[in-house]
Design brief:
232 residues; alpha/beta; Rossmann fold; 2 domains; 6-stranded mixed β-sheet; 4-stranded antiparallel β-sheet; 33% helix; binds adenosine-5'-diphosphate; binds magnesium ion
């Protein structure tokens, strides 16, 4: 079977993704597409396949079958090194729990993706600090992750995810561990920052008030996805 042609202008497209884990079907023909600068919420109940879809789109998990095209390239034709280079330089990630490195200060955490890409320490920390300013956490630069609140830590994690100016930001339940006030602030800052850099955002969430920050919603149920008309 030849892969379907991605919709015009799309940056990342998936068609007919299937993935099983032993007897469990995680994805059962899921499809997805996102344009540059678009914020798409992937919704659905727990266990429906949202994270598996995100991991496949990000090249972390290889689907059993189906096609994923990023910027005109079929992911399946890339080797591990090419996929990991893509993740380092073109993708950014935010997870439910910030997953900051506890031994590093906040500014060192934000600078880390740049350091891993070979940027010198001074320049990396200068860029990191400018992102921390945008996320309103620059005053925490010298603190360790253990010394900041959950909402602050998550804003540091968002700054880290954007520091390389990724073309796609993958966020899996980024506010799942926050109260609603902190969650909304993180979403506001995350979507503002992403829109200002024209990054596409794949936002996995099961909360309608988080999905409200998106341009479009895709619903996943039993490993199958469909576009949903926003009910306003
Ligand atoms: N690494 C894995 N090993 C075994 N089962 C998995 C794995 N990842 C996901 N699953 C299963 O696949 C289904 C979809 O999981 P997931 O994509 O995490 O759903 P969601 O993010 O919507 O909660 C679930 O039944 C889950 O238990
Ligand atoms: Mg999940």
């Amino acid at each position: 079977m030849t892969a379907p042609t991605p919709p015009p202008g799309s940056l990342l497209t998936a068609a007919d993704l299937r993935k099983t884990y032993g007897p469990t079907t995680a994805l059962d023909g899921a499809a997805f597409s996102i344009h540059p600068g678009e914020v798409v919420a992937v919704m659905g109940p727990s266990g429906s396949g949202k994270s598996t879809l995100l991991h496949c789109l990000a090249g972390i998990v290889t689907p059993d079958s189906g096609s994923i095209t990023y910027d005109g390239r079929e992911m399946a034709t890339m080797n591990d090194a090419q996929r990991s280079a893509l993740r380092r330089s073109e993708f950014g990630f935010v997870f439910q729990f910030g997953q900051l490195v506890p031994e590093l200060s906040c500014v060192e955490n934000v600078a880390l993706p740049l350091r891993l890409n070979g940027t010198g320490r001074k320049e990396a920390e200068r860029t990191a600090l400018s992102w921390m300013e945008r996320l309103e956490v620059d005053d925490l630069k010298g603190k360790r992750p253990g010394e900041v609140s959950g909402g602050q830590g998550q804003r540091v994690a968002v700054a880290r995810s954007l520091v390389t100016s990724p073309r796609v930001l993958f966020a899996d339940e980024p506010t799942g561990a926050l109260d609603s006030l902190n969650g909304e602030r993180v979403m506001e800052l995350l979507t503002d920052a992403a829109r200002s850099t024209n990054a596409a955002v794949v936002l996995v969430t099961h909360e309608a008030r988080v999905a409200a920050y998106s341009d479009r919603e895709v619903v996943v149920r039993d490993g199958r996805s469909r576009d949903m008309e926003r009910i306003v």
